[in-house]
Amino acid sequence: MATTVTSAPAGLNSSANPVQRLLALIPGLLLLIAVGYAGKFIEQSINGYTKAHHIPFPNIEYVLWAIVIGLVIANTVGVPRIFQPGVATYEFWLKAGIVLLGSRFLLGDIAKLGPVSLALAGIAITLSLLFMHLLGRAFKLKPKLTSLLAVGSSICGVSAIIAAKPAIDADDEDASYAIAAILALGAISLFAFPAIGHALHLSDKAYGLWTGLAVDNTAEATAAGALYSDAAGKFAVLAKTTRNALIGFIVLGYAIYWASRGQAQTVSNKAAFLWQKFPKFVLGFLLISLLATVGFFTKAQIGSLANLSRWAFLLTFAGVGLRTSFRELGKQGWRPFAVGAIGEVFIALVTLGLVFGADRLFHL
User: Fold this and answer.
1) Residue pLDDT, tens place only, 110-169
2) DSSP assignment, residue 7?
3) Does residue 324 contact residue 74 with C-beta atoms inside 8 Å?
4) Rounded to 5 degrees, what are φ and ψ at 270?
5) Exposed site from 90, 94, 123, 363, fewest CB < 10 Å?
6) 204 or 289: whose pLDDT is higher?
7) Could you report how far apart the first and last alpha carbons of the chain are, in Å?
8) pLDDT at residue 8 in the model
9) C-alpha dihedral over 31, 34, 40, 43, to 10 degrees?
10) DSSP reduced 3-state for 170
11) With the CA atoms of 221, 225, 231 and 235 taken in that order, what torsion angle do they form, in degrees rounded to the nearest 10?
12) What is the pLDDT of residue 174?
């Protein structure tokens, strides 16, 4: 589990040559493939058996199976050090999957989010930032820890925290606390959100929009959307990508604030800062979508890209489970978790109310 903010994954020597670094990734990559394929195998086996014997049984997709298998391994035998560098690549596969997913979106599809959805995203981000700061003060958390929790809960989880940490000169311990809280709550969302969505009979678009606005980590938001339906998963990715695109601006705002208080370095070149923090995979997603819109890809090629995207996500979901250690999460103390939990429940309920109301009024 990622409870530190070091640049190199555990077990990977930053001084090693490229060949050694590549070889160090192989065991973990093979483990991701094995866990992902096991999830797919279990899904197909259960579906085949229940259909053949006419047994009514809900379809539990490979997404959840891969995560559960990873969680079991991480929280029983653990993930040996030799596997950790390769397992840590799950974030790369997440970004690759989102870029490739662009082949399934025409630019017109992206526009379908519409002004109402974009307005909801703006409201949700603003409320998240304000409420997390109020909670942080109420629980007497350190100000920079509160800032990290606010950034993580409003934009894109762990990635936002890692981007904000050096920008505001936060301590490693604060970043670890914030990351642990966000990861724990993200794991819970995988089970809670689909159940709530089905209970409320949310449409695919409404559910996907809610998930993309309320779940912090991109991996968990993507997984929670896919667990509901393929269409919901696509809208979850769109909404989450919209939030991700704002990371540079939010982190820049915090950097300027802490610099003005003499507790962070002054940002001399704001344009360069924004480009450095901007998630480049968002541009890749838009480029692939543009190429699909103008007919650059054949139908067969689009199908192949979409299949590659699913495989990339399969490795991602396996990694989410393998990188989540409940034992390590429990060592981080209760106050950041309390702030995170209360804040996440508030954000989830408010965004659900906003999406539910907008769906009734504007028929999302």
Assistant:
1) 676 778 888 898 999 999 999 999 999 999 898 999 999 999 999 888 778 878 888 898
2) S
3) yes
4) -65, -35
5) 363
6) 204
7) 37
8) 44
9) -100
10) coil
11) -30
12) 80
Rama region for 17: left / alpha / beta (φ>0; ψ in -120 to 50; rest): beta
Q: At what angle do helices 157-168 and 218-228 cross, to 10 degrees?
A: 170
Supply φ then ψ for residue 124, to 5 degrees: -60, -45
pTM of the full predicted structure? 0.72
- Give the count of beta carbons closer than 10 Å to the beta carbon of residue 83: 22
Return the amino acid letter for 361. Answer: L
Residue appearing with tokens 């999302």: 364
What residue type is assigned to position 53 of the chain? H
How far apart, in whole angstroms, are the C-alpha atoms of residue 114 and residue 364? 9
| Residue among 170, 167, 184 nearest 343 (CA) | 184
184 Cβ partners below 8 Å, 6+ apart?
Answer: 324, 326, 329, 337, 340
Question: Distances in Å between the alpha carbon of 132 and those of 29, 32, 49, 139, 151?
Answer: 36, 34, 47, 10, 9
Tokens found for residue 31: 């483990």
Instruction: Identify whether the C-beta of residue 107 lies closer than 8 Å to the C-beta of residue 356.
Output: no
How many CA atoms does the CB half-sphere of 265 hold within 13 Å?
Answer: 10
